[in-house]
Structures are given as structure tokens and as C-alpha cells.
Amino acid sequence: MSVPSRKGVALVTGASSGIGAGYAQRLAQRGYDLLLVARDEQRLNALAARLGSETGVKVEVLRADLTDKADLLRVEQRLRSDDSISLLVNNAGIAVKGTTLETDLDAFEQMVQLNVVALTRLAIAAGTRFGAAAGGTLINIASVLALAPELFNGPYNATKAYVLSLTQSLQNELVPLGVRVQAVLPGATRTEIWERAGLDVDGFPASMVMETMEMVDAALAGLDLGENVTIPALPDVADWEAFAAARLKLMPNLSLSQAAKRYKSAGEDAA
Asked: In which family does this protein belong, per the annotation (predicted)?
């Protein structure tokens, strides 16, 4: 019988392949027991058997479709009630192809359910318990498209901008309680998300596409460094710090009792 890890259990969503499977492997190697969540139970079982054999950690499989409310609530309840879970990787997500105006609205709705609704419920469930325990780690997988809406379609980009905004808000609430909260913003990464969306990742310039384990290792290094936002491909962290500082500089003037003078002068000119 496996002895429970002192680090606790890492729950990873979308764990059957790609980034989720990469996190599962690296977290197992770091000594976490695992709770792997995805729709494909056969692949989850194969991954669980391999990681259990290679690392000796305890690996549990929980088959769930997070776009199904009943399945989502089962995972959410597990996060709320299982004190052994000390880390959540909120990774499950899908993309849709086409321009914003070409988007299949049914596919868009399903994407919002997974990328936004499910991620939010699980993040809040984990965050609530981690905050009460004064410890734990929440990792939300967003995308660089949260910062570059011109590069892909609006619906997908918007879901990832939401993830970044949610994570930054949760950092404000949870970090003072002793919880680590990280947003990870990958660029194009070689995973099955592209094929499932009907896209060919090999159509991108090779210089833009990062291998999965390269991305996961960089993201975990960012976590170790204490980064709140990790952009694995960004060469100079000072560029992100300058971007974040520029945003904060706006804050004192975003909500005032008077409109900016330029708008008043524009109205006078029109008159």
C-alpha cells in the first residue's frame, strides 16, 4: 500500500494528454500523489499505471466531463471536501476554429462552459478550502492570447483573458492567506487541442511552437520562483513587469467623478 505523500494530492484536470499529462508527470516526480481528471478513462488509467510504477506515488483516476454539470459538481465537491488535495492544476480547455463571426455558437457555448464556467467553479472551490487551511497551490492555465487578442478568434481569446483576470483577482484575495496562485500563459504548444479544433499546429512557424514538457517545466520553474504570472516563452521578465506596472498606473484614474478634459473640449469643438 502506498503511503500518502507529505506534499498531498495534486488534482489535474484535462490530464489524459498534453499539458495536463505533462503536469501529472512532473508533479509525480516532485512527490505529489495525483488525482487525474478527464473524459478519456482509458488513457487516464494508462497514465496512472505508468506514473505509479515509475514514481511510486498514489494515482487515482476520476473520469469526468467538465461540460456536464453533474460531473463538474462531483469534482467540485471533491475539492471542497478532500483535505488531502493541496494543489489544483486547472488545465482542461478547448478551442474553436474560425474567425469570431464564423464561430459555431454551439461550439462556442461548450467552450465557455469548459474554459470559463468549469474552471471558475473549481478554482473557487479549491481557493475557498486552501484559504481556510492557510496553504495550497492553485495553477490556472490561461494563454498568451489573453494579451494578444489580434492573433486568434475573439471567443477563445476572451476565455483566456477571463482566466487571467480571475487569477489576478484570486491572487489579491488568497495570497495574503498563504495560498500560492499562478496564472500560466503558454504560447502555441504542441498538444491535441489544435487537432480537436480542426487546426494543424504544424502550419505555424516552427519557431513559435513549444514542446509540451518544455512548457510545463518552465511553468513549474516560474512557480518555484514565486511568479504570479508565468509566460514560458517570454525572454525578459522585465517586459511583463513593465506591462503590469503600466496597468497599475492607470488604476487611480479609471473611476473619477469628472470626465477627462479631452472629452469636454471635444464636445465644445463640436458645438
From this structure: Belongs to the short-chain dehydrogenases/reductases (SDR) family.
